Amino acid sequence: MTPPRIVVGLTGSIGMGKSTVAAMFADLGVPVFDADAVVHALQGPGGRIVPAIEAAFPGTTGASGVDRPTLSAAVLNDDAAMRRLEAIVHPAVGEERARFFADRIDAPIVVLDIPLLFETGGDGRVDKVVVVSASSDVQRARVLARAGMSAAKFESILARQMPDAQKRARADFVIATDVPLEQTRSAVARVVACLAPREGR
Questions:
Q1: Are residues 25 and 119 in the same domain?
Q2: Beta-carbon-side half-sphere exposure of residue 98 (alpha carbons within 13 Å)
Q3: Is the pTM higher than 0.70?
């Protein structure tokens, strides 16, 4: 299967505004594969990996699919448990990504929205990497405003993610979200314009 001509990996640490930037790419007509949304569907009501997760982590699923807070508590700070979960989730996401490529074989550019792009080695499977970034103060304020989030949980999540400075250093493009929204939107448009000239190659 031949992937679309330019595959862009979109990533950024928690609270950096990646979903907002992904929506901006979509608004410009660029197909976006949202790994988080795919995981939610796979783990939701009738999701095809729900039985495997229940078998590996008894009591973490129900009629509504995976109980995310319960599953999160079961794997947080437990590397072995996290690896068991990843062994279930990652192959299923890979299959959905293959379908996404097959359905958009003629798209000149596609975006893969993958939170742990660097951490999982996914940057080696894309042509360009876009990192979404904001100041640590803005990031912290955004995340701690989320329901069910605590400072301890935030720090635990951060510990599993590559530091923002390292991500920015490895990026082909960095898009800031701690600036006015239109400035971020313009930055996304510049990335698309930069990549579009390769369309006929």
A1: yes
A2: 7
A3: yes
